[in-house]
Design a protein that fits this description.
With about 525 residues, the protein is mostly helical. It has one domain. It is about 75% helix and about 0% strand. α4 packs antiparallel against α16, α9 packs antiparallel against α22 and α17 packs antiparallel against α18. The longest helix is centred in the C-terminal third of the chain and has 35 residues. About 55% of the residues are buried. The N terminus is likely disordered.
């Protein structure tokens, strides 16, 4: 499949990629990181969502480049703009989803003295998260040529600011349509994603959204209450992990893909190292949190291994969903592992640390995937390996800078938020679930519904991800998104049938505009509601 920006040709590259640590770039990046973490914390605690601020960072960088000052002209370089939008995006998701959300869980279960322990575990989680994605990006499982919708949209914005012309006008038209549609209640980000993603995967995503929304009306069944979405995701996720392991072992490779690059050859090693790092983080949480006094040694060891497995599997599933659909069920995935931990029989306090640790992984993984996709496009889509490698390394450092700024901000202000009752709404769901205890029918329901999820994932294979995307839809209550996905796919099929392959390129650019306009409008309306 051709990418949305295939006609953006990078013919010349500088001898060196711009460095994040250039004084002006570093100073602006820190400032944007502070803005990003404030945006993330305010919207997550007051509205319950965290917006993708990559596009906001891109627009800020473009605006900065337009200031008629000598110092500002350096920011006309799209590579520097890419570093700035990476930093603000990492600070937003890292501070809100990765750090504040886990702290809120232990606060709500009445263990405020464990906030420091949870902070350490969550911070290690997000750093490991970003590091694994940095290591496995452009591998067979997470290819740079994959969809990563928000990354394409951000790249479209930066390219339009750099080149303008027909692309700029198409992007602007798409952004206006996306903003108007989003304001009227149509999720235009979904509409845009369905114009550039895998039609099979996105069809299952839309069907899952509609099944979750209308099952109570049509069949008189609440799928969520019966743990159907959770079971389907458990089954689909298990098969997805087998498919990932198969890819790591190299089964079924063709001669053309056998030596696809260093990232591919070292995929298994990087995932193993990531798992080992998660084990260390979970063990530190267990030790510093005094869990040895609450559980027997075998259960303590089982907790450490289960927490590490949950963190790794959660981030991989979230990454797959983010890459294919642009949406990722990070909150729901953490809830699934919380429910599994309850079924195993872990006590309440370990469960709180478990769900917080699991929730910290995934969002940073997916977010960095979007940002690296943007950078990969802007750097020539891999045609200049040395420049690409250095640019990717600088983006990784920008992500870590965003996380560092977010960590300082959260440590300074989390108590101010919590004492005023400003906690992420999903934390109340996690705390209530822990308080309710395990349902005796829980394990049976998960096993029963894991079967169709596993079969669907097996039939679709690793490229279509039917099971994971269907489960993603089931885990989200958003009927408008379901209808929008199916309508968008139908329009896409009609346009391609009528105009042929020539329609693809303008559709991709418009789709980037739909996503960008939707993101900006969502940010604006959410900010207004938060006041």
């Amino acid at each position: 499949m051709r990418v949305a920006v295939e006609d953006y040709q990078v013919t010349e590259v500088p001898e060196r990629h711009p460095s994040l640590f250039e004084p002006a770039t570093f100073a602006v990046a820190v400032l944007l990181a502070v803005v990003g973490v404030v945006i993330g914390l305010e919207l997550l605690t007051r509205v319950g969502i965290t917006p993708n601020t990559s596009i906001i960072g891109a627009i800020a960088a473009i605006g900065l480049a337009r200031i008629p000052l000598g110092l500002s002209r350096r920011f006309s370089d799209v590579a520097r703009q890419n570093l700035l939008q990476t930093t603000i995006s990492g600070a937003t998701f890292g501070g809100a989803n990765g750090l504040l959300l886990p702290l809120g869980v232990v606060w709500l279960v009445g263990e405020p003295h464990l906030v420091g322990v949870m902070m350490l575990g969550a911070l290690m989680g997000v750093v490991i998260d970003a590091t694994i994605l940095y290591a496995v990006f452009d591998s067979r499982i997470y290819p740079a040529s994959g969809l990563w919708p928000a990354g394409i949209a951000t790249a479209e914005c930066l390219i339009a600011g750099d080149r303008g012309g027909t692309r700029g006008r198409l992007l602007a038209a798409g952004a206006v349509a996306g903003g108007v549609g989003q304001f009227l209640g149509v999720p235009m980000d979904v509409f845009g994603v369905c114009w550039i993603g895998n039609m099979w995967a996105l069809s299952m995503f839309g069907i899952g959204l509609l099944a979750r929304a209308y099952a109570p009306t049509v069949a008189g069944v609440d799928l969520n209450a019966l743990y159907v979405p959770h079971g389907v995701m458990v089954g689909a996720g298990a098969v997805a992990m087998v498919q990932i392991v198969t890819a790591v072992l190299g089964r079924g490779r063709t001669p053309q893909t056998r030596d696809a690059g260093a990232a591919e050859r070292h995929l298994g090693r990087n995932l193993a190292r990531g798992f080992g790092a998660f084990v260390v983080a979970a063990a530190l949480m267990a030790l510093l949190g005094g869990l040895y006094g609450r559980m027997s040694f075998p259960m303590l060891a089982g907790f450490v291994l289960f927490a590490a497995t949950a963190a790794l599997v959660s981030e991989l599933i979230v990454g797959i969903s983010a890459m294919h659909a642009g949406w990722f069920p990070a909150f729901a995935t953490a809830l699934i592992f919380l429910v599994l931990g309850m079924a195993i029989g872990f006590p309440p306090v370990p469960l709180a640390l478990l769900v917080g640790f699991t929730a910290s992984t995934g969002p940073a993984f997916a977010d960095m995937g979007y940002d690296l996709k943007t950078g990969w496009i802007l750097r020539g889509r891999g045609r200049f390996p040395g420049f690409e490698a250095e640019g990717r390394r600088q983006q990784y450092l920008a992500e870590l800078l965003g996380l560092a700024v977010a960590a300082v901000f959260v440590l300074l202000f989390y108590e101010s938020y919590f004492t005023r009752g400003l906690l992420p709404p999903v934390d109340r769901v996690y705390a209530a679930t822990i308080a309710a205890g395990a349902d005796p029918k829980l394990a049976t329901a998960l096993l029963v519904w894991a079967v169709p999820g596993a079969l669907l994932q097996l039939v679709g294979g690793p490229t279509r991800q039917l099971g994971v995307l269907f489960a993603t839809g089931l885990l989200i209550y958003h009927p408008a998104a379901g209808w929008t996905a199916l309508v968008s796919l139908a329009v896409r099929a009609g346009l391609l049938r009528w105009f042929g392959p020539a329609a693809e390129q303008p559709m991709y650019v418009l789709a980037g505009g739909f996503i960008a306009g939707s993101a900006l409008t969502s940010f604006g309306t959410a900010t207004a509601r938060a006041r």
